[in-house]
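Researcher: Sequence recovery benchmark, item below. Answer with residues only.
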């Protein structure tokens, strides 16, 4: 019975760490050299910005939904005409969902490592950014 209690406590602590980490990322949206700002129109036609990591594979640019909160990803699926701002320049793209072999390749080439643990192992989805 003690073992079950300790496992439950560890699980609750882990969930708390994931929630705290995800909340902090959502609030501060840290930008780095490997990040870009994606602008997506929400359901009301209002532009919404989100900081995401820029990934590259086979000469294409990708962004990934690496976290449980992923409204931006769902909005990009509904309205794939997006803008990417990087180094002060804004470029128009069409966001194309990635699946199958392409998805597996991009995932393998862009490992998250320990971040997967901190984010609670969410399913990872990718969008390829094709120039408009």
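Model:
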């Amino acid at each position: 019975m003690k073992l079950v209690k300790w496992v439950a406590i560890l699980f609750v602590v882990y969930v708390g760490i994931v929630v705290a980490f995800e909340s902090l990322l959502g609030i501060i949206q840290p930008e780095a050299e490997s990040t870009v700002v994606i602008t997506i129109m929400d359901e009301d036609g209002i532009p919404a910005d989100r900081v995401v990591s820029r990934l590259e594979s086979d000469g294409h640019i990708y962004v990934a939904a690496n976290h449980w909160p992923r409204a931006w990803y769902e909005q990009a699926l509904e309205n794939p005409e997006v803008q990417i701002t990087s180094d002060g320049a804004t470029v128009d793209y069409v966001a194309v969902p990635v699946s199958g072999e392409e998805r597996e390749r991009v995932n393998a080439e862009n490992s998250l490592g320990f971040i997967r643990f901190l984010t609670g192992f969410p399913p990872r989805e990718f969008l390829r950014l094709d120039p408009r």
